[in-house]
Amino acid sequence: MAKNDFDIDFDFEKEYGFDPKAVLDSDYSDDDLDLSQFDDEALGLDADTDGDFDDFDLDNLDDLDLDGPTGAESEPVQAAAPSRSGDPDDFDDLDGLDDLDDRNDLGGANAEGDLNDMDDLDDLDFEDEDLEEETQAEDVSRRASFFGMDTDLLRRKPEAKAAEKETPSYAPPAAYEVPSQDEGNRNPESSYEEKDDDPEQEPDDAQRPAARQRRERTKKEKQPGKAGVPNFFTRLVRLYFPTQQEIRERMETPEGRRRRKPSKQQIFKEFYLPPLILGLSLVLILSFVIGSLSNTIDAMQQKRKEEDDKAKQESIAAEQLATEGTRVLQEAERLAQGYDYDGAIAALDTYQGTESQEMIAKRSEYMNAKALLVEHQDPTLIPNLSFHVLVQDMSRALKDTTGLAGSYNRNFVSTAEFSRVLEQLYANNFVLVNFESFVGSASLDGTTEKYDKFSIWLPEGKKPVMITETMVNYYTYMIDSNNDGLADSGGSGFASRLVVDDNGDVKAEYVDENNVTSVGNYDLVPILEDFIAQHPDFSYKGARATLAVSGSEGIFGYRIQSESRSKKGDDYYNEQIAGATKVVDRLRALGYRLACYTFDNTNYAKISADMVNQDIQKWKTQIAPVIGEVDTIVFARASDIGDYTGGKFEVLRAAGFRYMLKSGDAPYTEVNNTYVRQTRLMVTGENMVAKPSMFTSTGVFDPNAILDLSIRGNVPTG
Known about the structure:
Layout: H1 12-16, H2 20-25, H3 40-43, H4 128-146, H5 151-155, H6 159-162, H7 210-221, H8 232-240, H9 244-250, H10 264-337, H11 341-349, H12 357-371, E1 373-376, E2 384-388, H13 394-397, H14 405-411, H15 415-427, E3 430-432, E4 439-443, E5 449-453, E6 456-459, E7 463-470, H16 476-479, E8 497-500, E9 506-511, E10 517-520, H17 524-534, E11 546-549, H18 562-568, H19 570-590, E12 593-596, H20 609-627, E13 632-634, H21 647-654, E14 659-664, E15 669-671, E16 676-682, H22 685-690, H23 693-696, H24 703-706, H25 709-712
Parallel strand pairs: 2-7, 2-16, 3-7, 7-11, 11-12, 13-14, 14-16
Antiparallel strand pairs: 1-6, 4-5, 8-9, 9-10, 15-16
Helix pairs in contact: 10-11, 11-12, 15-17, 18-19, 20-21
């Protein structure tokens, strides 16, 4: 090999920390260099070994991946240890060392010459003293390995220092370790330590440097592919969110050279844009997934809500249907109790649901009961029991000092006596009816009316009866002793007016002898209502009594005549109108027939047709606007017009009256084409005493069981 074949451009000062020119320029001579210690025997070399420098071929250095493994999956690269013998020509390729930008790229060599395992040096935490000492040892080791010397022999320490160190297990390396560029070759002279007398003897663990022992322990603990393997998430973060060190490493060329400094645009494009795109994609994907889940959840909630609403509606419908079924049964039973079996069956037919077993049973019951009804054809046999307004306290009435005490005893009935009349009527199988129960009218040509009677169907043994009450005005003389327009304790024991309570029931207001006002069953209407409620079969198809009122002192205790307005003012008058209207509406709703008792309580038999017309016109102007139109007139003072073809009759008919009631001693009903005339049996103290046959002949009641003679004493007659 020629001299210049081993000519390399090598910076010893940079690489090994000394300047050879300084040595050459000095007075240093070869005689000063004792090389006896570097003979083959001293260096542990085998003289018989053939030196083949071809084994130290560096041609393939460019093919080595000197960057070291970047992950657990990288296979370690085995670097062959240089042979002690070789051809100097093999060193021609050392020019490739110029391509190495940083000796750290070589990594440390392990015992088998694995260059890649030098990465483990980065994980070691050296003490300052150990780091300097180790650096010196590594520098000497590298140079000795380069020249084929035994590196283990040079690394030995004096036994005095080695005894102070720990003694871990040790496996001597077979290859050299490349020191880092930062450390360099600070003190090459310190690398040569005194050798033992026996060069073949291996140093024990105590003689090894502590830093090397820690490094060897770390190599054994860190196993590639096990604890050092990053997971998927870690690799993903490293890929898209690198550190500044990783960015610098990626900018290096495969040969270890650093690329030209990239621009901000390149850095953004290569390192920041991908994660931004990935992040945006993840946001879009998450938005889609969340939106889909939200829509699915909303759809499920909506479906559940619809199902709940449907179930709730079905439940409400079922409850409503059950409630309707109960109401239908109650209404049907009420109609059946009044012998309106056709109406009861029609009520059952209004039920929209499936009929229950109870409904089926009731329908059958009503049909069977209807089949057992008996027809009553003769209306002349229907008695009409007529009462004046009732006395609540007969003892007060009999104490009247105005000369009316005898009149009260002779012409009036107390509330207690009326209650006994109802009880006897019911016991004697009488059923309350009204005109609509057996007579009706039909229009022939739109103007001409024709009245016809029809049959009443009742169970066998039952008989129809009618009830009428007159003078339901509660005159001032009955209730107001000082004529101030207010009922007081000086009254004669009568109720003062009818009222509608909070329950919708019609009651009577009463002021007792102590001037205490109360509301209760103090007249015919509330007494009759309570009785029907207790005995619904007493009322035929809901029939009620006929109530006849005059107009000169208002109606039902309310002073609605024009005179009260002029005396008391508009406020008082309007108050009276409102009270009367409320009572009228409720009475009509209950089924009571309202009638005229003349306006001035006048005997029409004793006045002319013109006077009758004048009286009726007062009624029409002052009373009809509140009470409404009525078709029934009850002649006052037991009178009658006599001739039903003359002027009086024409006046009454022109006023709209079709039902005309007069006094009589026996039941009588006449149904003509244009009107209906009937007699009423006046139930008074005098008649019950003087004419008891009026009541016993028809079997309605026994007067002796009705009259309270213990209070009345001798009832005046005549």
